[in-house]
Design goal:
single chain, 117 residues, mainly alpha, 4 helices, flat
Length: 117
């Protein structure tokens, strides 16, 4: 019993000493203004934060997410092809793909797929 308590105390003391040494050695003496500021995607963090942001980046991200989810929904349809009714499987697949093609056509008509004007 005494040896278990002694081992636990030694482990706690070693851990405490290692934590103290790590905190002492990791202190930086020079605090650089640029290094302590957050990095914001290549923009100057000291300039005005109210710069206009292009909505195209956001829309391309949304388009990517939509088609990424499309792949995640189409793959199980291929797997259940053997186990389901052919007519129900075919109608579900066609309706799903037509909805996606309709969305792609709408984005194309709105000019969201044209990167440059």
């Amino acid at each position: 019993m005494f040896s278990i308590i002694l081992i636990a105390l030694i482990i706690m003391m070693i851990s405490f000493i290692v934590m103290i040494l790590a905190s002492i050695l990791s202190k930086k003496t020079l605090i650089d203004r640029e290094k302590s500021s957050p990095f914001e995607c290549g923009f100057d963090p000291k300039s005005s934060s109210r710069l206009p942001f292009s909505l195209r980046f956001f829309l391309i991200t949304i388009i990517f997410l939509i088609f990424d989810v499309e792949i995640a929904l189409i793959l199980p349809m291929i797997i259940i092809f053997k186990f389901s009714n052919m007519l129900i499987w075919m109608s579900t697949s066609i309706i799903f793909i037509l909805i996606l093609l309709g969305g792609l056509y709408h984005e194309w008509n709105q000019g969201m797929l044209n990167w440059s004007n």
